[in-house]
Amino acid sequence: MPRRSAICKSLWAFTPIGCGTRSKETFGSAVERFRELSEQKDRSPSALRRQIENLNPDQRKAVTEVVFLRLSEMTGENSDDEAGALLELLRAMDSVGTTLPSTAFMELLSARSRIYQGRPKPEILRLRSFILLTAAMSGCGSEIIGLVIENLSNGVMPYVLACAARAARFGPKHELVLKALEPHVLGLHDDVIVSLDRYQQQFPAAERTSAHLEILRTVGHYGPEAFQLRIPLQSCIDRLQSLRITPPLPLLKVALESLSEIGP
Q1: Which of 4, 44, 120, 151 might form a disulfide with 38, Cβ 3.0–4.6 angstroms?
Q2: Phi-psi region for residue 244, left (φ > 0), alpha (ψ -120 to 50) or beta?
Q3: Which helix (H) or strand (E) segment is 164 a member of?
Q4: What is the pLDDT of residues 114-137, one digit of tens each?
Q5: Cα dihedral sign for 234, 240, 244, 250?
Q6: How confident is the model at residue 79 (pLDDT cuts 50, 70, 90)?
Q7: Dihedral sign, CA of 22, 24, 29, 35?
Q8: Residues facing 209 on adjacent strands
Q9: Rounded to an integer, what distance in angstroms lies between the CA atom of residue 222 and that of residue 262?
Q10: Is the pLDDT assigned to residue 181 strictly greater than 50?
Q11: Can you give the residue ranges of every domain in the chain?
């Protein structure tokens, strides 16, 4: 059964109490519609957005309320894959203009949040990083900039660094972001290919990225303000060019293109 069934199961479980100020009829209609659409095989972000567009604004708000409720009630007894699916749903909601409350994201990002209880540390780091990026994409960049800087400064896991580097591009520019990026500009020894567009660890080639690539893109986003990084950036360029690597390793070519956007 498609992965979206995890979302439907969560929504149905919370139908009686998840309505908030919405009527049960409105909420139930939204869940029923989403359950039908979730059976489609295409689970890409664009496909999920098309599904959400079939809901009216009141239905979207009702489903958003219950998704946050479900996330707040989760613990380690619930799979992180289910939580990731719900976060992807929130991203789709945001992409069609549904307002997502920053307070709800901040509660999920708290280290004391129930959602992290009973999970192994690598799973906690991955899930919290995906929540961080989702919050940034939803307009909470200013509220989470401190956590972004913390993850860039102290993060070791490539996925944590990748999410934080991308999240930094959704918030205010900060000199401490550049300071935190500097040690990573030359690359990471244990970098891996990941997708930040979905939580699922199986993803199409078009979504491939890495911590190093996200870091270089963030430096490019800062433009001339990243002047302090010119020396490590030039060293990175020289190292990549000396390798003379050609396809099928396009990731390095993309990295060089990102560097070229930085300017003088």
Answers
A1: 4
A2: left
A3: helix 158-168
A4: 999 999 999 999 999 999 999 999
A5: negative
A6: very high
A7: positive
A8: 194
A9: 8
A10: yes
A11: 1-98, 101-264
Query: Can you list the alpha helix ranges (DSSP code H) found in 14-140?
Result: 24-37, 45-52, 57-73, 80-95, 102-109, 121-135
Name, in order, each residue with C-beta under 8 angstroms of 128's C-beta and a sequence gap of 6 or more.
Answer: 109, 116
Residue 174 has pLDDT above 90, yes or no: yes
**Residues 6+ positions from 235 with CB-CB distance below 8 Å:** 186
Name beta bridge partners: 194.
Answer: 209
Burial of 214-230, coded b for 16+ CB within 10 Å and e otherwise, reads: bbbbbbbbbeeebeebe
pLDDT single digits (tens) 191-216: 899 999 999 888 988 999 999 889 98
Quickly state the pLDDT bin for 6 (edges 50, 70, 90). low
Q: How far apart are the first and last CA of the chain?
A: 52
The 8-class DSSP code of residue 170 comes to T
The pair of structure tokens assigned to 209 is 């990225």
Question: Measuring CA to CA, which residue among 168, 165, 247 is closest to residue 205?
Answer: 247
Distance of alpha carbon 199 from alpha carbon 217, whole angstroms:
21
Question: Cβ distance 10 to 44 under 8 Å?
Answer: no
